[in-house]
Each structure stands twice: as C-alpha cells, then as structure tokens.
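Q: I'm writing up a methods section and want to include an example of the input and output format. Could you take the sequence below and give the corresponding predicted structure tokens, formatted cleanly so I can copy it straight into the document?
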Amino acid sequence: MRRSLCNAMCVATALLLTTASAATAATIGPEPTIFSTDVGVGGFTPGDVLTPGPLSADPVNPPWVGVPAAPLLALPDALFCPGCQIDAMSRGMDLEKRGGDVTHGILPDQQNGFLFSVDRAATGASGDVVAEAGGDGAAGDVYVSLLKISGAGAVTVHTPGGNELLYDADGSHGLPGLGLSESPGSEDNLDALDVTFAGHPGALALSPLFFSTDAIGGGADIFVFDGVSSSIYATDTDLGLSDNDNIDALILAENGTPGFQAPTGLFDWTDSSADMIFFSLDPTSSRIGTPDAFGGDIIGPGDVLTVTSSGIEVLIAASALGLGVNDNLDALDVVPEPSTYAMAAMAFFGLGFIGWRRRRK
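A: Here is the clean output for your methods example:
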C-alpha cells in the first residue's frame, strides 16, 4: 500500500511537471532524469542519452532519446565514435550552488543520497542489491544509500544494509520504472545516470553534459557537450589516470571556470575555487588493485574515488554501499536529502525518495 501511495505521488508530481513545462517535457520526458545503457534499447545505440518515456500504469513505456549519439560523440580531433557507449555522465550540477546556498558541492558530515547502479555480474554484499541480483535483475535498477562523508574512507551509512532499491528497471516492484528489461538473457544494464531536482534552473537542460566513453573513445578522459559539439574537459593525466583506465561512473560539481580545477584536498571545492569530481573505474582499468594516493586503500571497481592535487583517493569504499569487493559500480549520482528541500521543488525522484524513507521507517 505504501508503494502504491508513492506511485500515486510520483505520477501526480510528474504530471504537474509535464503540465507546467509541456514544450520542454515533450522533448526529454516527464522527469529530469537521464541515463544510458551498455547496449541499444528499443533501437537506440549505447551512445544515446535516454530519458524515461511517458508514465503509464504497467508496463512502463520505453525510454525516449534525450541527446542522440551523432552530435554527442563527435569527439575532438574529428573523431566520431559510432560504436562508443556512454560510460558515465553528469550535467555538472551535482550539489552545486542553488538559490541562497553559499556552498558548492558536498560539505563534511552533510547527509546526501548517493544513487548508483551495478552491472550484470554484481551480486552485492547486503541490501537490495543482493535481493535483486538473486533473480529480479539488478543491472537496470537504481539504488540509493544515505551517507555522511567526514573524510576519505570516513563514511557514516544511514541506510540499513547499505542500499535500497529506488528506481526499478521495469517498474515491477511498484517503484518508478525506467522502461528497461529485467528478462533473463535480455537484461538491460544501466551504464550512466544523472538526476536533477525539477526546481533547479538547469533541471531540464541537456547541455552542458559532461561524460566519459568506453575505452574505444578514450575511456579515462572526460568530455563536455555544449549542445553542438564535444570537447575535452579533463584528460586522464588531469585525473591521475592513464589511457589504460576507464571511468565508469561520474559525479561532478562544475565551478563555472572553464576546464578542470583540481581541489588541493577534500572539501576544497566548497567555496567554488575548485571542481568537485567523484568517479569509479571499470574492472579492466590498470589502477584497479593498486593503492590510492595515501596507500591505505586498494582501489576496487565498486569504490567511489576522488582526485586532489595529492592524487586519487578512495572516498567511499564499496562496502559502505553494500557491495562486494568484486562488484562493479556502473553509474553514480548524488542528491541532497529531500527533507532539506520543499516538496514543491521536487520532481518524480524527490517524491519517490520520500516514499522510500516512509517505507524504511
């Protein structure tokens, strides 16, 4: 019954958003959520940026294309990468300044919701990832974990089991769906994600869009799409990586100064003097299995990493998200805990999160 209440609230809010901004919503769907998959869905390519289709009772409608691959993957040096997939993405607005806020990015000991997905091989260590991997199809789902970060590896987890299901791939659990398949043998894999509150002035914008591709397109570089073409935002060297690495998930709070400004240390980004960037690495990356900059943590495919002038650090260990050491973190985003924002400013995701918290209590 609580899930039904959540569904009703989500539908009502999405309809309000669609009514209030019909022209834009018709372009990218009824909620400011964008994602990509590792194989084409419904005739789309892995390079297309997708958004959920119009809401329906059951089944969830197939997704729409938000940004087609053709302009997005016109990468620098006249390289067009038609076979590339989008491995990670962010609109660069992850916990940036909003309205009267004076801080930029995550603050120390601030509780936020970290959204993530896993790949088809993930089994999880605890939480709903384990349950979904046991037969419901975990790779097309989005999970959430409420975390407070005090420092590198110093994380307080406020979610029982480390994670709970937030978006269901096909909506079969009565939660918001993405129009993806969970059928055995044809399970879709959500490979990149960005969610923005409707109240944010850039919520329905699709550019700038920061992204990374698979290894074919230079998997350790981050590009930025301005609505017409793409250019380099940060090279693998800027991020302490090599061309043998592959970025697999991305969180970014861009400070407004062109190019990437690396923080000198954790939370240096809060005054907008630096960009906040978190990411994960594909299991095939050369940095997997090596120590981070401080030598205290071995980098794994389920860890959330950050980079400062000192090098790469393990910010959130896979275990804090309820993942096993071999699980691959496949997509990543962060949003403020909704209780700090007015409900009227939240879209489909916001009310879904509130419904999730009520179920948890």
